[in-house]
Amino acid sequence: MLTDGDAAPDFILPGTDGDDVREYMLAEHTRDGPVVLAFYLFDFHPACTDELCAIQNLGWFDVRDDVTVLGVSRDSAFSHRAFAREHDITFPLLADSDGAVSERYGVRLDELAGHRDVSNRAVFVIDAATKVRYAWAAADPSEQPDWDEVRAALDGL
Questions:
Q1: pTM above 0.85, yes or no
Q2: What is the DSSP string of 3-29?
Q3: 48 part of the active site
Q4: Among candidates 74, 78, 83, 82, which has minimal Cα distance to 53?
Q5: Which residues of the chain have pLDDT under 70?
Q6: Which of 38, 48, 95, 126 is catalytic?
């Protein structure tokens, strides 16, 4: 897994903010400020729903308009759109359909509950120079990140 100080691999993935499906590039967002990249298992999985809704409800992302949040899982952009609409998630959800981005970030799981090649729950804070400034991955699928640590990493930039 990538750690603090590593270069964050750039990528282009299809995704949605709940409306249109389009391509998203990491470098396009780091030009504007830091990015919180949140990998998650599946759309509609209870723990993932809790995690993504928690991000949406934090409020401090709204106060810092220089921070971009991107969610990433192996589900399709169309599944992401339905998920975002159902749970009022306004940040983009990206489809890593072949698992290449999860692999490059070191968060691809071989198997979970009978599903092959899924993204582990993980959070990275990436600065404007595309360096990882915070990295966390779940040891257990039900584990949630410490959002105070994420905020501290963002405040330190």
A1: yes
A2: -TTPBPPP-EEEEESSS-EEEEEHHHH
A3: yes
A4: 83
A5: 44-50, 53, 59-63, 111-115
A6: 48
